[in-house]
Design goal:
four-stranded mixed beta sheet; 11 helices; binds coenzyme A; 411 residues
Length: 411
């Protein structure tokens, strides 16, 4: 029988910190209100050089160091994110390329703040089925890029960052024991980020370059511009309270545990009051709930893996601990996992150095492949196509045929 153990973990947060006081200089709020109503003291803010991919890569590299493996051993990379840099290529492909993980499949997973636990479930099932030996599961977000900084109800709550874990196949009992995944799409209007796609012309026949400036208005009445987040705070709060306690009960029942056997509950870091309410409902003391929301705010899919790292570093998460993780958020989605924490690996400095060298080599190889593709294009590119290429419409009215060099995918 195969088991899936977490053997590596890493996190990354942008350097710049935005305190509650900073926010109170541009919206009508205060440090006291934010701390009392959410438990948040500060959050990290992505700068111009940060992206979802760059944060994910940094967290993944740290996780590989702890796991003491090389990127080429990884068979699957899942990045849970609601704020990918591109619709495609996926953030996971950007991570694969940067690390030089040449034996890995890679995809992004969209389940909002539940995404990391969804990914953990997918990856551990693949390991238990014997399909792969190692998987990288990452939660990465630049939430501050989708916030309306004039909306005090949401802009105070979110932050940026990434967390990653390495899962390893083993015949030693333990690791991820059971998971549950749930969704209720009827609550999709409580919390959402709209894409731009709905604003675009439906098809070529309807497209008229002159109408590009008069694209359809958002009809939900909430005036949320595409690419920005909408949240009904009160309803989402009630949902969080109900799900955190309910999903915990369900996962421990599935695992054959009692509530008081939980050594550490690592919930999605949405609001400290949601945790306090679940603590009462479950009769599980707050000391068994891990929280670091005071330092990072709500980092969506990144919050649980970042909390894992901090819990290990502070000695709160120790070998043989029975651990429950619960994610919940947009979709609506929620997910829980029960696991027995394994023996931590000792950091191997030689492998750490080698992984930095491998990172450099991966970069060289990636560039070489791009150059090679261009050379191939020059040599073999003059393929005679008798039919005119279909000109795809684009919102700026430019004919879809590529006339200039397309930009490189940037991390
Ligand atoms: C957003 C949230 C913190 C608001 O807390 P709340 O106690 O529900 O506050 P309310 O929405 O009832 O608002 C109470 C008052 O505070 C005001 N308020 C809202 N945000 C404020 C802020 N940042 N600063 C000061 N006052 C604020 C409201 O305008 C309202 O004022 P009013 O009574 O004059 O109308 C809370 O609802 C929440 O955390 N929801 C869940 C969010 C979440 O977890 N999202 C992610 C899930 S994955």
């Amino acid at each position: 029988m195969r088991y899936a153990h977490i053997v590596g973990w890493g996190k990354s947060a942008p350097e710049r910190i935005l305190t509650n006081e900073d926010i109170s200089t541009f919206v009508d709020t205060s440090d006291t209100w934010i701390r009392e109503r959410s438990g948040i003291g500060q959050r990290h803010l992505a700068g111009s050089r940060d992206s979802t991919a760059s944060l994910a890569i940094a967290a993944a590299l740290e996780a590989l160091d702890v796991a003491n493996i090389s990127p080429s051993q990884v068979g699957l990379i899942i990045v849970a994110t609601s704020t990918p840099d591109y619709a495609f290529p996926s953030t996971a492909c950007q991570v694969q390329d940067a690390l030089g993980a040449d034996s890995a499949g890679a995809f992004d997973l969209s389940a909002a703040c539940s995404g990391f636990v969804y990914g953990l479930s997918m990856a551990s099932d693949a390991i238990k089925a014997g399909s792969i030996e190692y998987a990288l599961v990452i939660g990465a977000e630049v939430m501050t890029r989708v916030l309306d900084w004039k909306d005090r109800g949401t802009c105070v709550l979110f932050g940026d960052g990434a967390g990653a874990v390495v899962l390893q196949s083993s015949d030693q009992p333990g690791g991820v024991l059971s998971t549950i995944l749930r969704a209720d799409g009827s609550g999709g209007d409580m919390l959402f980020i709209r894409n731009n796609y709905r604003e675009q012309p439906a098809n070529i026949a309807e497209y008229d370059g002159a109408s590009a400036g008069a694209l359809p208005k958002i009809e939900d009445g909430k005036n949320i511009a595409p690419g920005y987040m909408y949240m009904n705070g009160r309803e989402v709060f009630r949902f969080g309270v109900r799900i955190l306690a309910g999903a915990t009960r369900e996962i421990i029942a599935k695992s054959g545990w009692e509530v008081d056997q939980i050594d550490l509950l690592i919930p999605h870091q949405a609001n400290i009051r949601i945790l306090e309410s679940a603590s009462k409902s479950l009769a599980l003391p707050m000391e068994r709930f891990y929280h670091n929301i005071e330092h990072y705010g709500n980092t969506s899919a990144a919050s649980i893996p970042m909390a894992i790292c901090d819990a290990v570093a502070s000695g709160r998460l120790r070998p043989n601990h029975k651990v429950v993780m619960v994610g919940f958020g947009g979709g609506l989605t929620w997910a829980a996992a029960a696991l027995e924490w394994g023996t931590p690996r000792v950091l191997n400095r030689a492998n750490r150095t080698m992984n930095r060298v491998r990172l450099g080599l991966a970069n060289v190889r990636s560039r070489a492949r791009r150059v090679l593709r261009r050379v191939e294009d020059r040599v073999f590119g003059a393929i005679d196509v008798s039919a005119e290429p279909l000109a795809a419409p684009s919102p700026n009215g430019r004919n879809g045929a590529v006339t200039e060099a397309e930009p490189e995918v940037r991390r």
